[in-house]
Amino acid sequence: MNKAALHIRMKKVSVIIPVYNVDKNLLKNCLDSVKNQTLKNIEIICVDDGSTDGSGLILDEYAKRDSKFKVYHQKNGGPSRARNSGIEMSSGEYIQFVDSDDCISKNMSQKLYNLAKQEDADIVKCGCYSPVSAGKASPDRTRFGSIFGMIGSGYVWDGLYRSRFLKENGLKFDELSSFAEDISFNMTCFPKAKKTVCCSDKLYCYKYNICSLTHTRNDQKALASLAQNLNFVYKNWKENGYFENDSAKLKFLKWFLSFNCWLKKDGALGLFMDAIGDELKQDSAIDLLPAGQRLAFRKMKANYLNKSA
Question: Phi and psi dihedrals of 43, rounded to 5?
C-alpha cells in the first residue's frame, strides 16, 4: 500500500473508552460527547471489560448506528488491560483516552490534534473541568515542559498520545495495577517523549462519579497497587538508565514523598520502601532533596530499617 492510500485509511484520532458496569445515563452522555466531536476522522474504540449490567448492549447499539464505533467484549481484567487492548486495536495517528463516566468538549479532539500536529508533539495535555470544583481556577498546564517536569500529571484522559510513539517504545499500562495506574503510565511516557505540549483550555469534564473504582477503593488494595506503581516506574527508569542523572533521582524521590498521606497508613512504609532500589536510599541520593524533605525521608528510612531488623 502506498503512503497516500495509507494516509487516507488512517484515522486522525483513536478514542479509547474502557467500560465496566457504568450508569446508563453517564455512559450515553460520554458516548454522545465523543460521537459529536467536530473532528470527524476518528474511530471510537469501546472496550467492554466484562460488564454484567447491560453496558455492553448499549455499546453494541451505538456501533450499529454509527460506523465510527468499534466495540470489543472481553473478560474482566481491569482498566489497564482494557486500555492496552484498545491501544493494540487502534489505527489512529493519535490516541485519546476517555473514562466512560465522563464527557468531553465537542472540540477537544480537534483542538488537541491541531496542537499536536502544529508542534509535532508526542503528547499534548489540556485542562479539565469538574462540576464539584466549579468556579475554581484550573491549573495553568502551560507551566509544565521539561523531560521530567511533567510527572505531576497523573491522568491519561486529559490529552493525546502519538500512537507510533507508544507502540514503538512498547509503552503500556501496568496490568498488575488497578488503582492510579494513570500515574505509572505517564511516568514511563513523559521521559521518552521528544516533545510534550500543554494548554490550559478546559476541554475534559471529569464527573467525579462517587461509585467509580477510584472512590470506592479498598485502602489495603490501593496501597498494594500504589507500591506496584512505584516498582513499575522504578524498574522502567532503571532499565532506561535514568538514575544515572541526579535530576531523575530527585524527581523520583519527590514523587515518592508525594504519597505522604498514604505513607501514614499501616503497612505502607515497608511496601513503598521495598518497591524502590537501594540507590534511592543512599545518602548521596537523599542529599539531593530540599532540607525538609531530606529530613522526612531520612526519618522514614530509619523507621524502615528498624522494622526490617
Answer: -120, 145
Q: Are 249 and 128 in the same domain?
A: no
Taking each continuous run of H as one helix and of E as one strand, the counts in the chain are 13, 8
Domain membership of residue 259 as a residue range:
218-308
Same domain assignment for residues 247 and 294: yes
Dump pLDDT digits (tens) for 116-138: 999 999 999 999 887 755 444 44
Under 8 Å CB-to-CB from 38, ≥6 apart: which residues? 106, 107, 109, 110
CA distance 119 to 84: 26
Q: Are residues 197 and 128 in the same domain?
A: yes
Of 195, 213, 231, the residue that ends a domain is 213
Dist CA 169 CA 187 (whole Å) = 13
Enclosing H/E stretch for 13: strand 11-19
Torsion from C-alpha of 232, 236, 242, 246, nearest 10 degrees: 10
Residue 183 has a CB neighbour count (10 Å cut-off) of: 25
Q: Which pLDDT tens digit goes with each residue over 59-90?
A: 999 999 999 999 999 999 999 999 999 999 99
Contacts of 32 (CB under 8 A, 6+ apart): 103
Domain identity same for 94 and 200? yes
274 and 134 in a common domain = no
Residues 34 and 93 grouped into a single domain: yes
Taking the CA atoms of residue 291, residue 295, residue 153 and residue 123 in that order, the dihedral angle to the nearest 10 degrees is 70
Q: Which of 143, 178, 213 is at the close of a domain?
A: 213
Q: Amino acid identity of 58?
A: I
